């Protein structure tokens, strides 16, 4: 059983009151009826039933915006999108570096006050190169993650100079209904930490805030190893709120003792995860 302990800091929270928030994401941030027309959506139909994510208030972004007492401007999230250009696509859309995606973060003549970026997991998951193998001066490669993330933030800063921009890192997951599914430490030679390091470095270059979801060693419950279930969405909302408000949020923990199960390790240590709240700890072996 999970419970949430509330830490109040209403002065900081009031900064976001009635502000307009746009979400810039992939499938994790989609929901039927809440994304621009003709966008690819994951959370619809059967996937809503499987996950329990059916309404605005079930999503991480919906809960976050309600908690901040802000307003949703646009949820510019496309299922399957990457920061980098998709291979075999003749144009940049729906990549995060496309002008169309970036322009879609506004509505009519209103620009977002806050932009929350939840992108990068599809780049990591499909083996996109993290760094340029053959740097060519100042020329950036739209198929390379660091270059593309830099291009995306540069465009966002130019288009929305007054917006507060939050870059959410990648996070680890587990699947309660399929315990045999283990979260990979490395994909195509790149660890999740290496991708998150790049997100942090590039965000700093463009004066954007970083919300490091991996640093807490909390795994998010999913239906398939990638897409959060309803409980996972709530955990994401709390962690992202904590990142935005520096501790002024609902803090996640277990009501009683953690129920740890072993999910990995080596001859020197074992890695344990709480099956209830997803917290991870390591034990040294004697």
Automatic annotation (TrEMBL):
InterPro entries associated with the record: Ester_Hydrolysis_Enzymes (IPR051532), Lipase_GDSL_lke (IPR032588), SGNH_hydro_sf (IPR036514)
GO terms, molecular function:
phosphatidylcholine lysophospholipase activity
* Record's keyword terms, sorted: Hydrolase
| A Pfam family per the record | Lipase_GDSL_lke
Query: Does this UniProt record's set of keywords contain Hydrolase?
Result: yes
Provide the protein name: SGNH/GDSL hydrolase family protein
Instruction: Tell me which species this is from.
Output: Ruminococcus bovis
């Amino acid at each position: 059983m999970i419970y949430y302990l509330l830490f109040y800091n209403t002065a900081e929270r009031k900064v976001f009151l009635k502000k307009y928030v746009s979400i810039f994401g992939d499938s994790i941030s989609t929901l039927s009826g809440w994304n621009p027309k003709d966008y690819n959506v994951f959370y619809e139909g059967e996937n809503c039933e499987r996950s329990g994510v059916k309404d605005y208030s079930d999503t991480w972004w919906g809960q976050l915006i309600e908690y901040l007492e802000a307003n949703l401007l646009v949820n510019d999230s496309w299922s399957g999108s990457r920061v980098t250009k998709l291979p075999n696509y003749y144009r940049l859309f729906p990549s995060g570096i496309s002008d169309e995606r970036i322009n879609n973060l506004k509505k009519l003549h209103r620009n977002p006050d806050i932009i929350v970026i939840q992108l990068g997991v599809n780049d990591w998951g499909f083996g996109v190169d993290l760094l340029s193998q053959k740097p060519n001066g100042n020329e950036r490669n739209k198929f390379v993650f660091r270059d593309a993330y830099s291009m995306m933030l540069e465009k966002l800063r130019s288009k929305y100079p007054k917006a507060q921009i939050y870059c959410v890192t990648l996070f680890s997951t587990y699947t309660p209904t399929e315990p045999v599914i283990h979260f990979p430490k490395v994909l195509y030679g790149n660890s999740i930490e290496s991708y998150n390091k790049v997100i942090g470095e590039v965000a700093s270059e463009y004066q954007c805030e970083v919300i490091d979801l991996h640093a807490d060693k909390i795994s998010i419950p999913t239906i398939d190893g990638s897409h959060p279930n309803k409980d996972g969405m709530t955990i994401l909302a709390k962690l992202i709120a904590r990142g935005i408000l520096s501790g002024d949020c609902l803090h996640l923990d277990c009501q009683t003792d953690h129920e740890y199960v072993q999910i990995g390790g080596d001859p020197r240590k074992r890695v344990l995860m709480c099956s209830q709240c997803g917290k991870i700890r390591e034990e040294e072996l004697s």
